[in-house]
Amino acid sequence: MELSQQGEAKSVAPQPIEEGIWVVIFGELSVFTVFFATFLYYRTLSPEVYRLSQSALQLEMGALNTLFLLTSSYFVALATQALRKPDGLGQARGALRRAIVFGLAFVVVKLYEYAHAFDAGYDVLTNEFFMFYFTLTGIHLMHVLVGLSVLTALGLQIRNKMAGDGELGSSLVGFATNFWHMVDIVWIVLFPLLYLLR
Amino acid sequence: MRISIQAAWMLLVMATLISCGLELTATGRWAGPIVLLVAFVKARVVLRVFMELADSPLVLQRLGELWVLLAGTVVISTYFLAPLLVSPA
């Protein structure tokens, strides 16, 4: 936030982002919307199978993962704000580091959930619910891994700029940060669909 | 009304915990749609505050609002309409 001459906080315009990034973001969100609707439709065909299978999921792990991703997104937003300040590179790098840690925590919890499910004898071929569960969360997890890779690349670029070696591309900043928020949005909808709906 | 990213994070966390509580305790048929509605409200908060669409050019703001509206409508409509489309056994 910048301060006006009267000392009032005013919002700072975001950095310009290439239009192509938004095509990717909203395109991905739209594809996932179709997945969500498809899941809900098929859920209606076998409600008892879905309800019983859902009870095998660990709700607390899903909720924890939601909090991890929300917190990670928060730190990415903090990093974005810091990058606008003339002396904000250090702060941005610190916030990005925290964002990546929370993102990795999500991955660890997700893999633990998968291991727990496999141990209990559930896999993608068990029934329709688990086919959806493993496919949807698996596709989302791949997006998480891509997002973490791009955030790491951004962090390295920030480090190089701090060392006076290289420039910080606004395209990478825009893509890395908004892709990560998109991953968060997908999980925000996926979590209640898979874990909460009765 | 503009909110800070800190306030947005607290709102998102609270909404998540309320959703979990609501779905676990409420048994009425409206618990599901309410939880889904809360999810799309949360998505809108992420779009407008974390992704800064609230301060972006109007076309992007409209695009974000349109996705929330369309996606929310599609998902919640499917929740209600799918049982009507399924033939009784």
Report on the structure:
The complex is a heterodimer of chains A (198) and B (89). Chain A is 77% helix and 2% strand. The radius of gyration of chain A is 19 Å and the shape is elongated. Chain A has six helices and two strands, in the order ββαααααα. Chain A has a two-stranded antiparallel sheet. The longest helix of chain A is centred in the last third of the chain and has 35 residues, at 128-162. Chain A has 198 residues and is mainly α. Chain B is mostly helical and 89 residues long. In chain B, 78% of the residues lie in helices and 0% in strands. Chain B has three helices and no strands. The longest helix of chain B has 28 residues, at 58-85. Chain B is flat. Classes of the chains: A mainly alpha (198), B mainly alpha (89). At the A-B interface, helix 1, helix 3 and helix 6 of A face helix 1, helix 2 and helix 3 of B.
Give the SSE layout.
The complex is a heterodimer of chains A (198) and B (89).
Chain A: E1 2-3, E2 9-10, H1 19-45, H2 47-54, H3 59-82, H4 89-119, H5 128-162, H6 170-196
Antiparallel strand pairs in A: 1-2
Helix pairs in contact in A: 1-5, 1-6, 3-4, 3-6, 4-5, 5-6
Chain B: H1 5-25, H2 31-50, H3 58-85
